[in-house]
Queue: 2 jobs
Job 1
Amino acid sequence: MNELLPKVLLASVLLVNAGLAQTYDTKFDGDENPLSEGGRWTNEGLDWAKIRKSGGIAYGTETGTNTGSRMYDDSIAQLSGFPPDQEAWGVVYIAKPNASCYQELEILLRRTTSAHNATGYECYARCINSDKSYVTIVRWDGPIGKYTTLLERHGPDYGLKNGDVLKASIVGNVITLYINGIKKAQVMDDVFKTGSPGIGEWLYCPEGRGVGSNSDYGFSSFAARGIGGANKAR
């Protein structure tokens, strides 16, 4: 038997495993609608709005006035090629907190999208810092409007303010949400095993209050990492 064979096989396994892990970071320079950055960001879901970037901010494009299931046409963008265990975080930009609307910023995990289908996990917080603040972890189960709330927390400890870091991770079946490095929510779910990280933003304005405020909040930077490797995709 060739004594080199086991070493060759081991090296091959290590290279494959290293290749599964990626990182990506951006400060959203330039102007794009929709967000692409050389094709790294995509949104194949026809029922969901797009993310755009301008002036160093990535922000949503939905109207904020839809009703029924169409109310949940969150603006989304996702990366690709990440391993199942992953984490992502972004510095939030909140120029004009608006308590009369629901302005939410989201970190997406294990996200996949197709024409009328979106699956994966969404970890989000409201863009105000008051007793009306909240953080929530949900599982998107396919068609627009079909999701399962896994965990939510309410109160002044759970809101976002300008410059905060919103972060989420999934390792195995454990999903964790952080604000400024402090764990705010954690839950377990076994449904989705693959997909990539991304960002999302939701705007809903009852009676039209605050319509057009998409660019008042968003992300000023973003980074994602496949947990368990160090192969960088730029």
Note: The chain has one domain: 24-226.
Job 2
Amino acid sequence: MKLIRKGKVKEVYDLGDRLLFIFTDQISVFDKIIPSLIPGKGESLARTSAFWFKRAGELGIKNHFLSLKNGREMEVKKFRILEGRPGREEKNYLIPLEFVMRYYVAGSLFDRIQKGKTSYADLGFKNKPKRGEKLPEPLFEITTKFEKTDRLLDFKEARVIGGLEDEDIERIRDIILKMDADINKTVEKRGLIHADGKKELAMDAERNPVLVDTFGTADEDRFWEKDEYEKNGALIERSKEFVRQYYRSIGYYDRLMEARSSGSVEPDIPALPEEMINETSRLYISLYERITGQKWRD
């Protein structure tokens, strides 16, 4: 096997006609790898992703999943990672973008609204929304993938970077909405709200969009406890946002954002305390069980 990429949470190996993903127990927030390992995290991501890829296949959505091995290893179809920006006739390549669909005001969207960078009126609100409010309509956003930190794009720049036409973006949006409808329905039955999620896609040999990478997990998506939200509007996090909130609470996020805005040296991210490691491990394992309806161990 040839290691071709070592990402924040997984290693990618070239098997010739396909790729092998090995999911690690590393965890990252704000594009920083935390110097702590989370037991069970890699296996949780791999098994949860396999569950959703199988559901995608049943829904008729093209995807790259081939098989799950050893709990945390996944064989997938191979797509090229191109040097530079792809042409609009390019085929069989990974689109160098990330696609986000939001259903509630949370995360970076809430921050942008608070800072006036995103107009709440343009989103369909009469008044500034509170964190956790449901959006009048799903919000489809596109960000960079291979830059040092993710950057929000307008559709014009996204088309250039991704080698896409307007109709390609519409097809991708429709695929995500179709997949998310199944995610929303599935997790709602198990007491969860699916607030938002990120997906990646490739273009196949016929320039059809194909779901790739991973999705519907605690890393890429945001889940809340449905009962608590409906009773009192409480946002009980069941995703990696739980860890992000810890780094916000100790002031690291503010220091990091200040360094990035001023162009100064970014502070190293501190390790998680033992209690947080254990709690985060339990979160990933329990979320796998709740999403899939399957036991972690028989």
Note: Residues 48 and 288 are 6 Å apart (CA to CA).
